[in-house]
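Q: Please design a sequence for this.
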């Protein structure tokens, strides 16, 4: 089809030269590319050679008459717009021509204006047809693209190496992929509610709360470890599916097989535990022997005292590191919170503070305990874990506070939680490290902390232990002013 933006090609066929020339003049002014022919055969030759869009066709010509020419043009190309030109006497023929597919007719003789009107109408018809065709093609293309896009996404989802489950707001499964079915060991179709597919109640509740948007404002996703009957571990990561307007449409959960990773991790933990355990006894012996030498050998040269003191400090550092590594291994092996007993937190804090007060005094610091005024209810907890949590926090406060500083340990009850705050007026922590200091082996390195000995394992241990007791730990700190760690433990501790 002719593009209307290009000059449209029009052919005037008439045996009368004046008419041909008149048409040519008028039509050229209308910006057509005009061809003329005086006979039918000549007209057909031009039609076949040029991309003619409109033909002005005189019906009464010597030789091949107009009707025959029209017939041949129609055979050749259905889209060419043919306007027949005829005298009054042959209106009947004009009607016949219209029936045979002519678009319009002009009676002879005609005024230039008549010709213009008819030709402009034909041009408009062509333009509309062109637009309609373009729209049709675009629609066909969009549908084809859509179809292709849909099948492409399906193929991608089906070939993902991880399992996928998508739920709607009613928590019904709307999409699953083959890997998910493979994990569960049987073939499933979407359509049922999530508990039909997953038998773990906690995970189902998480997916349900996510799909129905009933989670806390800041909890729009989750991670959960799912253990299947066949000792396979899956990591389930869920996230809300949101519309463009931010409305919740459901949830998408990805399942990743982490069985091998877990086994490897276990091997690593076992290795660390074994090595740490084997190192601890000889190191403790060396440390004690160094202490004995330093205490008993009077008159030892100052030079040797310095060397031995340094060696003693270093072994002490190593012993602390080993204790931390053993703690981490115990936590990772799930061996904490095993010896549960009723505990009064104030008593625990008191004994830790008494023990660490020597260290604080060494730095001329004041270590103050402010137990809550009413007595605290006992909680069921593992004593060793509590020692580790508050021992780490208070010794950190001592380590990261300048000489002469102040550390306050405060206990209180807030609703159904026991809260313990360990607050110092020490170095403080820059806000960009507030999250990071709970990562394993992370230590803030600046002018003030560079000489402090440590492993970067204390706070991760504290966090893991607190969370293992279904508690929370938070930090407020101003760099240069001090830090406050707040631990909240539920009064009804896990049995
Ligand atoms: P470690 O003390 O062995 O380095 P932690 O995990 O206990 O490891 O602490 C990580 C880092 O957090 C420390 O290196 C220190 O920079 C920072 N930090 C911890 N407690 C405090 C505190 N009370 N004041 C300032 N910085 C602290």
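A: Design:
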């Amino acid at each position: 089809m002719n593009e209307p933006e290009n000059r449209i090609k029009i052919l005037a066929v008439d045996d009368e030269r004046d008419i041909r020339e008149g048409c040519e003049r008028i039509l050229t002014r209308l910006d057509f590319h005009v061809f003329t022919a005086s006979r039918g055969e000549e007209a057909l030759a031009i039609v076949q050679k040029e991309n003619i869009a409109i033909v002005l066709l005189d019906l009464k010509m010597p030789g091949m008459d107009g009707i025959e020419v029209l017939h041949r043009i129609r055979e050749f190309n259905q889209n060419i717009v043919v306007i027949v030109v005829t005298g009054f006497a042959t209106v009947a023929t004009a009607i016949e021509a219209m029936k045979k597919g002519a678009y319009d007719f002009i009676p002879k003789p005609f005024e230039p204006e008549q010709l213009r009107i008819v030709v402009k109408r034909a041009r408009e018809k062509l333009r509309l047809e062109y637009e309609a065709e373009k729209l049709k093609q675009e629609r066909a293309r969009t549908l084809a693209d859509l179809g292709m896009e849909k099948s492409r996404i399906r193929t991608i989802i089906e070939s993902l190496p991880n399992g996928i489950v998508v739920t709607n707001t009613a928590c019904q499964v709307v999409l699953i992929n083959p890997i998910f079915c493979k994990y569960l060991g049987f073939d499933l179709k979407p359509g049922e509610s999530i508990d039909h597919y997953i038998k773990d109640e906690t995970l189902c509740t998480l997916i349900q709360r996510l799909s129905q948007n009933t989670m806390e404002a800041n909890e729009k996703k989750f991670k959960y470890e799912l253990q299947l009957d066949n000792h396979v571990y899956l990591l389930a990561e869920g996230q809300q599916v949101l519309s463009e307007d931010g409305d919740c449409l459901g949830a998408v959960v990805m399942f990743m097989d982490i069985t091998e990773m877990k086994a490897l991790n276990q091997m690593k933990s076992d290795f660390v535990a074994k090595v740490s355990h084997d190192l601890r006894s000889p190191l403790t012996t060396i440390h004690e022997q160094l202490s004995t030498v330093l205490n008993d050998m009077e008159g030892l040269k100052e030079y040797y005292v310095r060397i031995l003191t340094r060696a003693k400090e270093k072994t002490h550092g190593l012993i602390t590191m080993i204790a931390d590594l053993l703690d981490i291994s115990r936590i990772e092996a799930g061996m904490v919170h095993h010896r549960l007993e009723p505990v009064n937190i104030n008593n625990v804090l008191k004994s830790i503070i008494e023990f660490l007060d020597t260290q604080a005094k060494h730095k001329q610091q004041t270590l103050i305990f402010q137990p809550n005024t009413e007595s605290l209810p006992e909680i069921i907890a593992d004593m060793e874990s509590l020692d580790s949590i508050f021992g780490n926090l208070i010794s950190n406060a001592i380590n990261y506070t300048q000489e002469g500083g102040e550390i306050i340990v405060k206990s209180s009850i807030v609703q159904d939680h026991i809260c313990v705050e360990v607050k110092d007026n020490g170095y403080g922590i820059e806000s960009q490290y507030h999250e990071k200091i709970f990562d394993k082996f992370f230590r803030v390195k600046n002018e003030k902390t560079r000489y402090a000995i440590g492993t970067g394992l204390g706070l991760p241990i504290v966090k893991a232990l607190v969370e293992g007791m279904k508690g929370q730990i938070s930090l407020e700190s101003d760099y240069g002013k001090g830090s406050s760690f707040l631990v909240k433990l539920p009064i009804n501790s896990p049995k």
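Q: Thanks. Anything notable?
A: The longest strand covers residues 233-242. Residues 392, 396-397, 400, 424, 426-427, 429, 437, 443-444, 449, 454-459, 483 surround adenosine-5'-diphosphate (CB under 6 Å).
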